[in-house]
Amino acid sequence: MFRGPLLAVDVGGGTQDLFLWEPGQRVENAVKLVLPAPTVVVARRLRRLTASRKPAFLTGRLMGGGALTGAVRQHLNQGLPIYAHPQAALTLNDNLDRIRQCGVVITDVPPPGADSLVLGDVDLEALRHLLAACEVPFPRHFAVAVQDHGFSPDASNREFRFRKWQEVLEQGGKLGDLAYFEPPACFTRMRAVAEALPGALIMDTCSAGMRGALLDPEAAKHREAGLTVVNVGNAHTFAALVKGDRLFGIYEHHTGLLTPAKLADHLDRFQKGRLKHEEVFADQGHGCAIHPDYHRLTPFRFTVITGPQRKLARDWPGVFAAPLGDMMLTGCFGLADAWLEKNQLPRPWEADC
Fold first, then answer.
1. How far apart are CA 97 and CA 104, in angstroms?
2. Coil, helix or strand for 61?
């Protein structure tokens, strides 16, 4: 067994979910937190500057855009200046020229009079103060999930991201290959987290959520026969066809563009192997990919559903997953499970699955 606490952080578009677990500790007694996502926190700080009519300087690292991108637009629309360090500016777009065209001034040096906002998907100082106030030891090990579209300055990031999912299927679809101590160079958001937390395990939020959902007892019963995992997040909806430790299909869309009826229709055709990538992409989703081997198998009809917007799947006959008794920490549990596997350590919850 390892020494010192492990912190798993699942960074979403609406919340960041944290699971602080010490070796030998019962999961029920671990520290668990659901907090506003980092992009939401920084967006609130920027809106305060907007209300005070103050210029802002974005510094720090590349992080998830989301709410912050909207706050930047609002600030600029008020006729107020936004300055950004080149690394922080990549939060808004992979192409710095496009950022400049929107009115953001790229500079290495904070201008006089501008209030600095530090960007990053993990705020270690805030975490340190929060845990210290509760007399909780600071973690020695980290596992973090962020959604990374990949670096694509001149093409659609939706297209680029889904091409990477297609490559995962083409290369065998092994679940274990979706967790990194050194993320691929194209995943710049993951690499920014790795720079802030050397030695941390990094995953995409969709991979972490899928892996965590598989720890649900009902999911475990159907894993060898094959099942569908659906994660309805605040920003993205992800579904996967899984059998054992292999992915056979991937579907990804924007949650805000889905209705219960549309999602049910997509899932039905996804399971039957009939949903086309072009249809999902044209609908402003990311896409759909199914490995040819799936067509030789019986469709994976059993479905487990997780995610904060899971009620969107109310028209679909699935089981609402509660891995280790806590749906909101599904991604964190997936991270912890992957971290233990990568370090060749026993996973104490396997006996409960």
1. 10
2. coil
**149 φ/ψ angles, rounded to the nearest 5 degrees:** -80, -15
- List, in sequence order, every residue forming a beta bridge with 242; answer none if it has no partner: 227, 247
pTM score above 0.90: yes
Q: How many domains does the chain have?
A: 2
The domain that holds 289 is classified in CATH as 3.30.420
Is residue 301 in some structural domain?
yes
Q: Which amino acid is at 50?
A: T
| 139-167 as b/e: b if 16+ CB within 10 A | bebbbbbbbbbbbbeeeebbebbbbebee
Assigned domain for 31 exists: no
For residue 258, the enclosing domain spans 222-321
**Residue 127 near residue 142 (C-beta atoms within 8 A):** no
Query: What CATH number is attached to the domain comprising 101?
Result: 3.40.50
Q: Quick check: is 160 in a domain?
A: no
Percent of the chain with pLDDT over 90: 93
Beta strand extents in 51-104 (DSSP E only)? 56-60, 82-84
Each residue's pLDDT tens digit, 57-109? 999 999 999 999 999 999 999 999 999 999 999 999 999 999 999 999 999 99
Q: Specify if 84 maps to a domain.
A: yes
- Measure the CA–CA gap between 157 and 155, rounded to whole angstroms: 6
Give the span between the Cα atoms of 15 and 112, in whole angstroms.
33
Residues in the chain: 353
What does the pLDDT look like over 165-224, one tens digit per residue?
999 999 999 999 999 999 999 999 999 999 999 999 999 999 999 999 999 999 999 999
Residue 260, Cβ neighbours under 10 Å: how many? 13
Instruction: Give strand ranges (E) for 80-215.
Output: 82-84, 105-106, 115-119, 141-146, 179-180, 201-204
